[in-house]
Design brief:
Elements (H helix, E strand, L loop, with lengths): L7 E2 L11 E6 L4 E5 L5 E2 L3 E2 L1 H9 L1 H12 L1 H14 L2 H11 L5 E5 L5 H8 L3 E5 L4 H9 L3 E2 L3 H4 L6 E7 L8 H11 E12 L4 H6 L12 E2 L2 H10 L2 E9 L9 H14 L4 E8 L1
Parallel strand pairs: 6-7, 6-9, 7-8, 9-10
Antiparallel strand pairs: 1-5, 2-3, 3-4, 4-11, 10-13, 12-13
Length: 281
């Protein structure tokens, strides 16, 4: 996809505030740079927030709804497996044993609300945030409380949630630091955040470079396990667990090679996607 004709702006590094970058990935019509100080990879300049919101509210957003509905079952299974890897099931048991009322969960970038609906069936009090037309689907078809504006504009009370989930969201945000700062504020003390995002320190990213499947126009940041850990720690979280998965992409490698690569991706932490669990401290 070519570079947008809309507004774009140069931005400092989201982790260290640095202003010195070097080339990182050259893609088709756009590129990523790497901070010389902390190694965070980002688009720079990048589309402004208003342009991104407008994009998800346009025809692209409607196409996104269709895409999410078509793949909903598979995506839900992947989310559940990732959360299990990160210890969400153990957290869930602990919360239900100790809490005087059902625990509360916020899913930011909840799409059609499939995961929220599943958590509701398990007894959670659930809320979602989604800026695309998926929000209306989740509201009407699943009767979910889904807010159709960015998280920072909602102004939830301090300490509102026992858990915050964000799957394949943080790489799309102009200001991931502001996002995590707000997540920290609205979490209860010692509550957890679960962040799922592509892993630029994984094998596939190193192998394919600018042709990596996650080096796309809509991703403004590409985190490694180290840079995401640094960002979480700098916004008040203690990283408790990191898990990666996905050794080789389907269709791009022989089946005999993909299976062992996928198996080794988790214990060796070179997977294509990662989930990071952070505790509010």
């Amino acid at each position: 996809m070519p570079v947008s004709d809309g507004k774009s702006a140069a931005v400092p590094c989201a982790i260290c505030g640095g202003l010195t970058f070097k080339d990182a990935l050259e893609c088709e019509g756009f590129s990523f740079v790497r901070c010389k100080f902390c190694a965070l990879v980002q688009r720079n300049p990048q589309p402004e927030k208003e342009e991104i919101i407008a994009r998800y509210s346009s025809t692209f957003g409607k196409d996104y709804l269709s895409y999410e509905l078509e793949n909903e079952t598979a995506f839900l299974k992947l989310q559940q497996l990732a959360l299990k890897d990160a210890g969400f099931d153990k957290l869930e048991k602990t919360l239900f044993l100790r809490a005087k009322e059902p625990p509360s969960c916020l899913d930011v970038g909840c799409a059609t609300g499939a995961l929220l609906a599943n958590l509701r069936e398990h007894g959670w009090r659930v809320t979602g945030v989604e800026i695309s037309p998926c929000a209306e689907y989740a509201q009407k078809e699943r009767k979910l409380d889904v807010r159709n504006i960015p998280l920072e504009e909602i102004k939830f009370p301090d300490g509102s949630f026992d858990a915050v989930l964000a799957s394949h969201l943080i790489e799309h945000l102009n200001d991931p630091r502001s996002f995590l700062t707000e997540v920290h504020r609205i979490l209860k003390n010692n509550a957890r955040v679960f962040i799922t995002t592509p892993n630029i320190s994984g094998f596939q990213a190193r192998l394919y470079g600018g042709k990596w499947r996650s080096a796309i126009f809509d991703h403004l940041y590409l985190f490694s396990t180290r840079t995401l850990t640094n960002l979480l720690e700098s916004t008040g979280f203690k990283v408790e667990k990191i898990r990666t998965w996905g050794g080789l992409a389907a269709g791009l490698s022989p089946k005999w090679l993909k299976k062992p690569a996928d198996f080794l991706a988790k214990p060796l932490s070179f997977g294509d996607v990662m989930i990071v669990r952070g505790r509010k401290v």
